């Protein structure tokens, strides 16, 4: 078991190295702009919603808010996505959901993400949203704080699967892009 773990860790490290090479190739200037970021992550501009989503991702990684990702920010992002622990990933997801950055999620912010990502056809986004609030909003004030979010996600598998969808989706697209780039 232990061996398997270190094996996958090595794979991730190799992937991160590959993605670093991609970064150098894509932007020798050392500053990655939004349109380059979109290209690396394979976002076609056909969908306005998808495009907005990747913009949110981009800004969540731009820690010094200069509208470019430098190499350190880029590596931190990859590290989080490919190797971050559950808590880090959830914190990052929360940041992604919190569009106005006030540290709380309201219904609108949640429903926006659910609409973008859900593939569940048995419930409407509004129903999913209600259920999440029911399970996660402990003090029933209509806002989900980071600690409610973290606790709720770790307590309930259904909520967890919904909330961490973010990371999985991004993960897959990075891995896909990664192997495409590196092979050629
Ligand atoms: Ca930056
Ligand atoms: Ca908010
Ligand atoms: Ca609350």
UniProtKB/TrEMBL annotation:
This is Guanylate cyclase activator 1g. SUPFAM superfamilies: EF-hand. Residues 49-84, 85-120, 124-159 form the EF-hand domain. One of its GO terms (biological process) is visual perception. The keyword Transport does not apply. One of its GO terms (cellular component) is photoreceptor inner segment. The lineage of its organism: Eukaryota, Metazoa, Chordata, Craniata, Vertebrata. InterPro entries: EF-hand-dom_pair (IPR011992), EF_Hand_1_Ca_BS (IPR018247), EF_hand_dom (IPR002048), Recoverin (IPR028846). One of its GO terms (molecular function) is calcium ion binding. PANTHER family: CALCIUM BINDING PROTEINS, GUANYLATE CYCLASE ACTIVATING PROTEIN 7. Keywords: Calcium, Lipoprotein, Metal-binding, Myristate, Repeat. It comes from Sander lucioperca.
